């Protein structure tokens, strides 16, 4: 099994590790290049939302991956990093977050981490920058149901300690992306970790709202939702919000 050479660049402060690393990926930076910051002045979520954390209170990092998958399988790449982060949290703190499709790690419905994956290039191989923010001692904005690893476990973990174990866990999963069998086993682990499955979800898409029971994830990482007896595939690009439980319009 080929191993990844991790090249880690640390910043005391940066606008956004995803923004910085996307520029490096465009210049040809290899898989395994990682940017990590103590503080982000313009940390980004999806759809122009913000990711907030005081200095040193979270793991704020981005990773270049160049897997052998198509752009329509981006969500599997997100799953690979989310599962690695989850496994690292279990190893260090005993806290086992669930995954909430498409990009959250949650503990009892409270967000403990979020991921932001961006396709930088589709030439030859896909180049993806996957960013992750994990609340270590910061419990997230008051306006959001959120938590931290320290609040959940009483354990204070430093950002470099979590990054180290996260990359170790990612190394064991990353090669799974390059083969159909590997992708299938990744999808199995993903489905087991996804709290969203079995729940009634309300999905806001660009032009409509879908309410139904989340059944599974397909080979592209799309969420399969049963609506009026039919299965509807929800792709991440369409989604504004997935709200388990909250089904009223
Ligand atoms: C995400 O977006 O959850 C993706 C977050 C990715 C952050 C990492 S940090 C390193 C890398 N560099 C970046 O610039 N970004 C990545 P989304 O699903 O859109 O959720 C964003 C929403 O989460 C915000 O609108 C807030 O409501 C909430 N939020 C912001 N900061 C939070 C925090 N620390 N903990 C919990 N929730 C938070």
Give a structural overview.
This protein has helices at residues 17-26, 74-93, 149-153, 159-174, 180-193, and strands spanning 7-14, 33-40, 58-65, 98-100, 104-107, 110-121, 127-135, 200-204, 209-217, 223-227, 230-234, 241-244. The chain is of the alpha+beta class and 249 residues long. A hairpin with a 2-residue loop joins strand 10 (223-227) and strand 11. The longest helix is centred in the middle third of the chain and has 20 residues, at 74-93. The chain is globular. The N and C termini lie far apart (49 Å). It binds biotinyl-5-AMP. Residues 16-18, 40, 43-47, 49-53, 60-62, 103, 111, 114-116, 131-133, 135, 138, 140-141, 144, 146 line the site of biotinyl-5-AMP.
Quickly count the helices. Answer: 5
Distance between the termini: 49 Å
Percent of residues in beta strands?
A: 25-35%
What is the rounded Rg?
A: 17 Å
Could you write a compact summary of the structure shown?
With 249 residues, the chain is an alpha+beta fold.
Mind sketching the topology for me?
Elements (H helix, E strand, L loop, with lengths): L6 E8 L2 H10 L6 E8 L17 E8 L8 H20 L4 E3 L3 E4 L2 E12 L5 E9 L13 H5 L5 H16 L5 H14 L6 E5 L4 E9 L5 E5 L2 E5 L6 E4 L5
Parallel strand pairs: 1-2
Antiparallel strand pairs: 2-3, 3-7, 4-5, 5-6, 6-7, 8-9, 8-12, 9-10, 10-11
Bound molecules: biotinyl-5-AMP.
Which tags fit this structure?
249 residues, alpha+beta, seven-stranded mixed sheet, 12 strands, 32% strand, globular, binds biotinyl-5-AMP
């Amino acid at each position: 099994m080929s191993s990844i050479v991790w090249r880690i660049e640390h910043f005391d402060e940066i606008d956004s590790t995803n923004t910085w690393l996307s520029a490096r990926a465009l210049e040809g930076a290899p898989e395994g290049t990682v940017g990590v910051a103590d503080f982000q002045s313009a940390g980004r979520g999806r759809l122009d939302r913000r990711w907030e954390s005081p200095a040193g209170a979270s793991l704020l990092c981005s990773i270049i991956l160049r897997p052998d998958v198509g752009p329509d399988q981006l969500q599997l790449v997100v799953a690979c990093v989310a599962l690695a982060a989850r496994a690292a949290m279990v190893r260090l703190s005993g806290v086992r977050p669930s995954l909430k499709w498409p990009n959250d790690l949650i503990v009892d419905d409270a967000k403990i981490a979020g991921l932001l994956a961006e396709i930088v290039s589709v030439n030859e191989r896909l180049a993806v920058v996957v960013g992750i923010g994990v609340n270590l001692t910061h419990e997230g904005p008051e306006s959001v149901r959120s938590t931290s690893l320290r609040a959940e476990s009483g354990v204070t973990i430093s950002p470099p300690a979590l990054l180290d174990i996260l990359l170790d866990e990612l190394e064991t999963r990353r090669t799974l992306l390059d083969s159909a069998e590997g992708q299938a086993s990744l999808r199995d682990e993903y489905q087991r970790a996804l709290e969203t499955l079995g729940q009634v979800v309300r999905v806001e898409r660009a032009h409509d709202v879908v309410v139904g029971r989340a059944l599974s994830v397909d080979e592209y990482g799309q969420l399969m939702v049963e609506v009026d007896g039919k299965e509807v595939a929800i792709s991440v690009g369409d989604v504004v919000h997935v709200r388990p439980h909250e089904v009223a319009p």
